[in-house]
DNA sequence: TAGGGTTAGGAAATCGATTTCCTTTTCACT
DNA sequence: AGTGAAAAGGAAATCGATTTCCTAACCCTA
């Protein structure tokens, strides 16, 4: 009875393929997995392949993983899913992974639920061969990965003394934005950041002050604002800064397009024209930048490349045991749109 | 030597725990997996638990899955990751899954790469116990799931004759938006949809004409536009419609906030005031709606509930073999903000 | 045709956990 | 103390694939 049962109801196993082709399980395995440690006669190969096709055989990943101690799966931990930068990274990383015959699983690192799916089941349970980490707000994750010596690569994040990270250059890009504005004649620059205790905020602030110093200017505490809660807050923060400052800014760098947009709304609400009376630039591009009149100038980073390289570097490390490096992608581009004016 | 080797370098297995506790593997298994088919003396239990804790033992998911024929993992296939509705669905589904001790893996159904990770490795290779499907643009996926009799649930999508889907009511919501506008005195309504060949576009168009008919009005082909490529196109489409129509619309329904935003820009570019000369409402809310002055009125759907219920229904079906139902969440809310005016 | 080297393919161990089936121990009761 | 039932725990099969080790068949040459 098991014979009928197997053919009809259940999913075929390798044994079924072997039986159908009239060969041993081992031979079927050799044919299916391709990696020929042994030569197989062409005619036998075809018999097995035909049988597999007819039965609709698909190898069982779980069994394979158990035996091979390899899952050919990668995980990526992301803090938020609807951030366009992460979206791009995920997409390109998945594409690169698939090209090398790996799968990529995405797992959200929920703030209220740090005990993520990926972490609990996959990493601890050896469900993935490696992990891309795009958030370090929970340092416990990286610690644990290191402790269990699971290959992992920090993506768009870096950590003091940590081997294996790949980043874009927020610092230099921000510094160059500042230089760009100064070259256009701006002298009073404001900076409205996202949460300053987070990685991106810190790097951008660092770049901001670095850029100013390169131009022989000194940062003015009064012109530096922090915005934790998005658009509406950005408008308020801007107004507060503008009104309070002795000499108001002629240009503002916003951490991202949401903040830039909010700031523009704030500026307009107190009668300021953009870009004539206030130049605005976003330190991170997104589709939102184009949804304004004028469109918002913004810095574009090679996030697609970042995701691709990250996946490939991780896979290399898994397959060749190669050490992971710390890579910094220096490329970026200031997309000049209409929100910045020249004072000259 | 293997003894030392195991303790030092490698990850502990159940056998190591058993050895450390001085019991048999089977006993250790019974303690660790909790499900007591057999009673275990409290003292023995503690010994095993202590040993496991000391060794840092974590069960190997792959081996477990192989033996149990269950992975306690769910997959979700999403068409795009940076759409706020999908973001909400994913987040709440993941949360619900974790609460029931399942993992949720997200996989992007890339258009140019329909051969997704989830599909290839997980579904075919029995890597997940069930799948949430949020896109039907590739009907092959659903076909294949059905053919392999893998539990799956359509989320925010439905298919003729398909058992197992959970949706929000785009049709009724859109119809009620139309009624709402008509009650405010609007008679000439325009509708700018996203791609009309896709699910959401079809449902909204259906609701739009249904709403009009309920109010005794007839849809005017001239006032129906399609926008496939986002903001800038929406502005153009709107202008074209407005200029071309004999009697111009006093209100417009946009499929989503990006289109609504683009339309508003288009309207302003031809000198129209919003909401005084043109009312605008989005049939789908997103943070972008609040990034306007005036803020854009929009329809809010219970996507969080959708994701939660979807995960739970799928898990129920997996665990109890219960049939999956077709559920429609009727709740929705029209968030009135400033972009709609009354003509009375 | 015997001998040596290849080529082709099979039997069985293995990966790590679960579970069935069985044996031993414990305990209550007479 | 002896008996039977219940409790506690162990040995081994199992899940589905890979791989090592081995044997049989084949081919060529001397």
TrEMBL record, chains A, B:
Source species, domain of life: Bacteria
Coiled-coil regions listed in the entry = none
Q: Which InterPro entries match?
A: HTH_LacI, LacI/GalR-like_sensor, Lambda_DNA-bd_dom_sf, Peripla_BP_I
User: What positions does the domain HTH lacI-type occupy?
Assistant: 12-68
| Keywords noted in UniProt | DNA-binding, Repressor, Transcription, Transcription regulation
Q: What is this protein called?
A: LacI family transcriptional regulator
- The source organism is Bosea robiniae
Traced from the root, the source organism's taxonomic lineage reads:
Bacteria, Pseudomonadati, Pseudomonadota, Alphaproteobacteria, Hyphomicrobiales
């Amino acid at each position: 009875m098991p014979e009928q049962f197997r053919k009809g109801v259940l999913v075929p196993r390798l044994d079924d393929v072997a039986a159908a082709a009239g060969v041993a399980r081992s031979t079927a395995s050799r044919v299916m997995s391709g990696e020929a440690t042994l030569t197989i006669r062409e005619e036998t190969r075809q018999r097995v392949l035909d049988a597999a096709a007819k039965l609709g055989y698909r190898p069982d990943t779980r069994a394979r993983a158990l035996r091979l101690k390899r899952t050919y799966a990668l995980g990526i931990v992301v803090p938020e899913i609807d951030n366009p930068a992460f979206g791009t990274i995920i997409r390109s990383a998945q594409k690169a992974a698939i090209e090398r015959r790996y799968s990529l699983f995405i797992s959200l690192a929920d703030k209220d639920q740090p005990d993520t799916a990926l972490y609990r089941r996959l990493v601890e349970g050896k469900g993935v061969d490696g992990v891309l980490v795009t958030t370090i707000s929970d340092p416990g994750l990286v610690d644990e990965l290191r402790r269990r010596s699971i290959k992992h690569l920090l993506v768009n994040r870096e950590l003091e003394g940590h081997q294996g990270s790949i980043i874009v250059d927020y610092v230099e890009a921000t510094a160059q934005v500042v230089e760009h504005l100064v070259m256009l004649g701006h002298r009073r620059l404001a900076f409205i950041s996202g949460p300053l205790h987070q990685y991106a905020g810190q790097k951008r602030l660092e770049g901001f002050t670095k850029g100013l110093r390169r131009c022989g200017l000194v940062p003015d505490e009064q012109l530096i604002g922090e915005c934790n809660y998005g658009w509406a807050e950005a408008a308020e923060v801007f107004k507060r800064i503008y009104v309070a400052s002795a000499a108001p800014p002629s240009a503002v760098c916003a951490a991202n397009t949401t903040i830039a947009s909010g700031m523009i709304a704030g500026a307009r609400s107190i009668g300021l024209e953009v870009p004539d009376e206030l130049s605005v630039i976003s330190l991170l591009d997104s589709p939102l930048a184009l949804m304004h009149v004028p469109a918002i100038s913004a810095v574009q980073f090679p996030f697609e490349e970042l995701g691709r390289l990250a996946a490939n570097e991780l896979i290399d490390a898994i397959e060749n045991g190669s050490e992971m490096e710390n890579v910094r992608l220096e490329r970026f581009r200031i997309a000049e749109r209409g929100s910045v004016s020249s004072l000259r």
